[in-house]
Design brief:
45% of the residues lie in helices and 15% in strands. It is of the alpha/beta class. It has 2 domains: 171 residues, Rossmann fold (3-Layer(aba) Sandwich); 126 residues, N-(1-d-carboxylethyl)-l-norvaline Dehydrogenase, domain 2, CATH 1.10.1040. The chain binds NADPH dihydro-nicotinamide-adenine-dinucleotide phosphate and ketopantoate (KPL). NADPH dihydro-nicotinamide-adenine-dinucleotide phosphate (NDP) binds next to helix 1, helix 3 and strand 8.
Length: 308
């Protein structure tokens, strides 16, 4: 089977993840990547510039309505509350052969995207292991992490998977294409439910979770509620999956902070609905108590309200 070459990539969401991966693609070939954004955002990026690890990046920007070719690949890197708008914004750039990946945390974004643009365009994906810190249009990171992706229906050797592997190999973006992407997504979900929320409530950077501390225990308590729920979805997470994600956390910069803690500090809305909110909803459906996430939910909502 000949592998399709991805020659043009459109990224929606020039934030921590979007900035990191768009820069790597730009290094491969300056013409390969374009950022989809509305005019006010484009003006903001043009006025303040976009800086990644001390280097100013000049990206090419496009808006819905611009006459440009369909994308070979669209990468969605907005926060969950911005997803519906982002889906509308990418629609004009989706042609018959366009592949779409969402790097959003949580386990729900792909379903929403598929409902609007069709599941034939999608691969399931997430990003893990990076320690990106963003302040406005200034981004820094020491670990780029990796993109984990797969074809939920057709395993890890489908034409879509092979095309994406080829792009990431050429651009030096670390990746993994596991056999079972659904299980992998749940392991990431469990990690985020634990560390994003515990770090936000405790205002703690990764260093606090890299040893046997009360912070780490709190993180594990929240993560175990995901482990319990996973049994109802045929995913069957195990204690070893918690041990594995702790190993990833141990590799991150001790001063680095989760995206959720960065949101609270910058007085932005958090993604608590796709973490504790989702856990509570699944718990109710299956009559499984989720007291840690119920408590986290109320505290984080309180923090959001008192921030702004
Ligand atoms: N940061 C991290 O280390 C990691 C994050 N993730 C997940 O990845 C997702 C993205 O996170 P992150 O990169 O931190 O998010 P950021 O908040 O850093 O970036 C999101 C960007 O999207 C922009 N945006 C929102 N809506 C639109 C739109 N319609 N068109 C164009 N741009 C838009 C925002 O602009 P504006 O600010 O102007 O609203 C913002 O710059 C989240 O789900 C997060 O949980 C996953 C792994 C690690
Ligand atoms: C895994 C982690 C904590 C950083 O890679 C993340 O997903 C986030 O900050 O949202």
């Amino acid at each position: 089977m000949s592998v399709k070459t991805i020659n043009n990539v459109y990224v929606v969401g020039l934030g921590a993840l979007g900035g990191m991966y768009a820069s790597k693609l730009q290094d491969l070939n300056p013409g390969i990547v374009k950022i989809i954004a509305d005019l006010p955002r484009i003006e903001k990026y043009r006025n303040s510039g976009f800086n990644v690890n001390g280097t100013a990046r000049a990206f090419e920007y496009i808006s819905p309505g611009d006459q440009v070719p369909f994308a070979d690949l669209i990468v969605i890197t907005v926060k969950f509350h911005a997803l519906s708008q982002a889906i509308q914004d990418i629609k004009p750039f989706v042609g018959p052969g366009t592949l779409v990946i969402s790097l959003l945390n949580g386990i729900g974004s792909e379903e929403l995207i598929a409902a609007e643009i069709g599941s034939e365009h999608l691969l399931h994906a997430y990003a893990v292991g990076m320690d990106a810190m963003r302040e406005g249009t200034t981004l820094s990171y020491s670990k780029i992490g990796r993109i984990v992706f797969g074809d939920k229906e057709n395993g890890n050797t489908s034409a879509k998977v092979l095309a994406l592997k080829d792009l990431f190999e050429r651009s030096g973006i670390p990746f993994l294409a596991p056999d079972n992407i659904e299980r992998a997504l749940w392991t990431k979900f469990m990690m985020n439910v634990g560390i994003n929320q515990a770090s936000t409530i405790l205002k703690a950077s990764y260093g606090e979770f890299q040893h046997h501390t009360p912070a780490r225990e709190l993180m594990i308590m929240a993560a175990r509620e995901v482990l319990n729920l996973s049994q109802f979805y045929g995913v069957n997470l195990k204690e070893e999956d918690i041990t594995d994600f702790i190993k990833i956390i141990e590799t991150l910069s001790a001063d680095g902070k989760t995206s959720m803690l960065q949101d609270i500090e910058a007085e932005r809305k958090t993604e608590v609905e796709i973490f504790a909110g989702a856990v509570i909803a699944m718990g109710k459906l299956h009559q499984i108590p989720t007291p840690v996430n119920e408590t986290f939910y109320q505290i984080i909502k309180f923090m959001e309200l008192s921030a702004g």
